[in-house]
Specification:
Keywords: Hydrolase. Pathway: Secondary metabolite biosynthesis; terpenoid biosynthesis. Belongs to the AB hydrolase superfamily. Epoxide hydrolase family. Strand 5, helix 3 and strand 6 form a beta-alpha-beta unit. Helix 1 crosses helix 14, helix 2 packs across helix 3 and helix 7 crosses helix 8. An eight-stranded mixed β-sheet has the order 1-2-4-3-5-6-7-8, with helices on both faces. The longest helix has 18 residues. It has one domain: Rossmann fold. The chain is of the alpha/beta class.
């Protein structure tokens, strides 16, 4: 990772750590859970070598970003998008619009960035998590509990301190390893007191693409804990309340979407139909490409970096060279 520079930028009341490389049109990389800026290292090097300025922050509550309140009420999409807009103003004031690449929660934040501030985004490459239109009739947590039950991982994340205590018993390294190696296309359940449902002595077999990474993530989560990342899940219902003005608003930037066919998000009930039968295109009218990668699970940009890098570059390059835009 030689050549990647690190700095801290004061934005929106917090101190945001960013990793960046090279100069040129900015590509902003937004990570998910339980990731950090580090999950984009392959993409940073690849895009920087092709004339782009790659910028990857540790989002609010993660890694070496500090100063965020501990309560989940400060982790809504409005807060996090506010951080991002302030970051862009600070690091690239001369660029009115930037390219954005998101994964997992980073993809969710990217969708909301495009809803709130489409004037700041040239084009978006999003991975794993599709756009979710707001259902004005039901809050998201009530919907998840009704469908999956109380042991579903997002439901288990809700009570502050509870899952953190269980993770402490399991051990940070095992928790990180279990999340990053999850390849079951079905939903993830975390029954109370039963961890990931296996013996704590069962070894975790790390794939080659992950073997060098776990220690970096563990070093940050052992220092800071998981609460910052979990707070994004805890703000789901609050997001629903605050985003009522955006009900039925479309995402109006050019989009490419990439997902693995073994990703639990792709296999969630209704998602394939939404992607392939017109719903996605209706909500995201400038959706230009959907790529489903065979045999790939959730952490797609780490598992298959070469293919993902090319997909990102091929899409973004169209807007860099021609200056084309959607009108």
């Amino acid at each position: 990772m030689e050549g990647i520079e690190h700095k801290t930028v004061s934005v929106n009341g917090i101190n945001m750590h960013i990793a960046e490389m090279a100069q040129g049109p900015v590509i902003l990389f937004l990570h998910g859970f339980p990731e950090l800026w580090y999950s984009w290292r392959h993409q940073i090097l690849y895009m920087a070598a092709r004339g782009y300025r790659a910028v990857a922050p540790d989002l609010r509550g993660y890694g070496d970003t500090t100063g965020a309140p501990t309560s989940f009420v400060s982790y809504t999409t409005l807060h996090v998008v506010g951080d991002i807009v302030a970051l862009l103003d600070a690091v690239a004031p001369e660029q009115d619009k930037v390219f954005v690449v998101g994964h997992d929660w980073g993809a969710i934040i990217a969708w909301y960035l495009c809803l709130y501030r489409p004037d700041r985004v040239k084009a978006l490459v999003n991975m794993s998590v599709v756009f979710t239109r707001r259902n004005p009739m039901m809050k998201p947590l009530e919907s998840l509990r009704a469908f999956y039950g109380d042991d579903y991982y997002i439901c288990r994340f809700q009570e502050p301190g509870e899952i953190e205590a269980e993770f402490a018993q399991i051990g940070t390294k095992r928790v990180v390893g279990k999340f990053l190696t999850y390849r079951n296309a079905g939903p993830l359940y975390l029954p109370k007191g039963k961890g990931f449902g296996d013996s704590p002595n069962t070894p975790i077999i790390l794939p080659s693409w992950l073997s060098e990474d776990v220690d970096y993530y563990v070093s940050k989560y052992e220092k800071n804990g998981f609460t910052g990342g979990l707070n994004y899940y805890r703000a789901l219902n609050l997001n629903w309340e605050l985003t009522a003005p955006w009900t039925r608003v479309q995402v109006t930037v050019p989009v490419k979407f990439i997902v693995g066919d073994q990703d639990l998000t792709y296999n969630a009930p209704g998602t394939k139909d939404y992607i392939h039968k017109g719903g996605f295109k209706k909500d995201v009218p400038f959706l230009q490409e959907v790529v489903v990668m065979e045999g790939v699970a959730h952490f797609i940009h780490e598992e298959k970096p070469d293919k993902v890098n090319k997909h990102i570059y091929d899409f973004i390059h169209k807007f860099s060279t021609s200056g084309c835009s959607v009108s």
